[in-house]
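Customer ticket, subject: "Can you confirm the structure for Peptidoglycan/xylan/chitin deacetylase (PgdA/CDA1 family)?"

Message body: Hello, I'm evaluating your service for our small team and ran a test protein. I'd like someone to confirm that this is what the system normally returns, since I don't have a reference to compare against.
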Amino acid sequence: MSLLFINNTGLASVSSVNRVLPPPVHKVPAPDIIALSEINPAHSICLTFDDGPDPLYTPKILDVLADHQAKATFFVLGKAAEQFPHLVEQILQAGHSIGNHTYSHRHPWGMSSEQAKQEVVQTNLVINTIAGITPRWFRPPFGRLRTAMRVQAHSEQMTTVLWSRSIIDWGFCGTKVGIARRLDQIKSGDIVLMHDGRPGHNHPDITYQCLPGFLRSLADKCLVARNLDEVIYRAD
Ligand SMILES: [Zn+2]
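Agent reply: Thanks for trying us out. I re-ran your input and got the following:
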C-alpha cells in the first residue's frame, strides 16, 4: 500500500472511508498520456465521457455500457458531481473510472493562477467527499494545458490525460452520421473524447443513440473498451 494514491488534502474534512486504490501495473511514461498504443498493445480502447454527470444522459449511457460489458472513464465536473452525487457513485459501482475535469468548466486561460488551481482542488474535494477516492486522471476543459492546473493535478498524484481521437459530438459537426463515422474510425490504443454532459453545448443525445451500434462492432474489430484504471493499473 502506498500513500502515493491517497489524497492528503481532503481526508480530514470528509466522513466517507478512503478506499485504497490498486498499485500500478504499467508505469506512465510521461505526465500526459496522448495515446495508449505504446503501452497497451492488447487491443484496448479507452472511451472517455466529459462534462457530466448529467441526470438524463449519464444513466442512459451507463445502461448501454453495461449491456455491452464495456468500461469507460468519466471526467466529471465538480459542480455537476456536487449536484448529482448519486451518479458519481453509480459510475464507480459499475466499474468505470472517474476523472477530474475541473469544477466549473471555465476556460483554463480565463482566470487567475489561483482560481485555476482551485478548479482542480475543489473538484477532488467533491469527489473525495462523495466517493472516498482521489481521481488518478485529470483533463482540462477544451484540452487547454494551463500550467497552474497541471502542477496542481500533478501534486495530487493525477496524470493529465488528453485524447487521441474525438467523435466531435458538439456543434454543427455533431450529427448522427458524423459521429457514427468517427466512431467507426476508432483504432486500438485510442483514447476517445465523448460527452455525457452539458447538453446545451454538446450532443450527448446523439452520442447515446450511436453508442449501441458502435459497441456491438467492437468484437468484430477485436477491440475491448476498458477504463483508464484497467489499462494503466492492475485491477486487483
Ligand atoms: Zn469538457
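A couple of notes from the result: The first helix runs from residue 57 to 67. DSSP finds eight helices and nine strands in the chain. Feel free to reply with more questions.
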